[in-house]
Design brief:
- By secondary structure, the chain is mostly helical.
- It has one domain.
- Helix content is about 65%, strand content about 0%.
- The protein is built from two helices and no strands.
- The longest helix is centred in the middle third of the chain and has 36 residues.
């Protein structure tokens, strides 16, 4: 395997992004994360009610089923960051 040195003068100069563009990206990312956390928070408050309304009332696993779906969603969300 041969290796060659590239002279530093042949490297392309990359201009940094403008401050406005960086702010826009940070704002959009923050807004998206805020909406996602809001979605999980609202669902976690209503998980017990959803369990009572949509799962059989005679089953003791109704609340557990709704909370299990919340945990699966949170694990999927966390897996996206790793």
């Amino acid at each position: 395997m041969k290796s060659a040195l590239i002279p530093s003068s042949s490297l392309a100069y990359v201009q940094p992004d403008s401050t406005g563009k960086v702010r826009r990206v940070v704002l959009a990312s923050s807004l998206g994360n805020t909406l996602e956390i809001y979605d999980f928070t609202v669902y976690s408050f209503f998980a017990v009610i959803i369990g009572q309304l949509f799962f059989p009332a005679d089953s003791s696993l109704a609340s557990l089923a709704s909370l299990a779906s919340l945990m699966m969603a949170l694990l999927t969300f966390a897996a996206g960051f790793s």
